[in-house]
Amino acid sequence: MPNIKSSIQSVKTDAERHAKNVAVKTSVKAAFRKVKDAVKEGNVDEAKTLFATACKKIDKAASDNVYHKNAAARRKSRLAQKIKAIAK
């Protein structure tokens, strides 16, 4: 544990930020998984509705700087590719 007051505060805020980021990443992963499960089952309509909610969560995470904007775009692109593959 640091002795300097600003370092002590920094440790506290880092822990809070880390907890928030972990929660956001977990919800994004859960949304991603739901879309992948719908794709595996072949439910195109369900996958598209879940894709919309997943995109919203991914965009929110990117705007909060949890994910880099290019990483968020890559995740959305990969989900869209999976949905397009079963829509044919």
Walk me through the structure.
With 88 residues, the chain is an all-alpha fold. The protein is built from three helices and no strands. The protein has helices spanning 5-41, 44-63, 69-87. The longest helix is centred in the first third of the chain and has 37 residues, at 5-41. The chain is elongated. The mean pLDDT is 96.
Topology overview:
Blueprint: H1 5-41, H2 44-63, H3 69-87
Helix pairs in contact: 1-2, 1-3, 2-3
The biggest beta sheet, please?
none
Tally of helical runs: 3
Structural class: mainly alpha
The mean pLDDT is 96
The 3D shape can be described as: elongated
The low-confidence parts are none
Q: Helical amount among residues, as a percent range?
A: over 70%
Q: Distance between termini?
A: 57 Å
Oligomeric organization of the protein chains: single chain
Radius of gyration: 17 Å
Hey, roughly how much beta strand do the residues contain?
A: under 5%
N to C succession of SSEs: HHH
Number of strand elements: 0
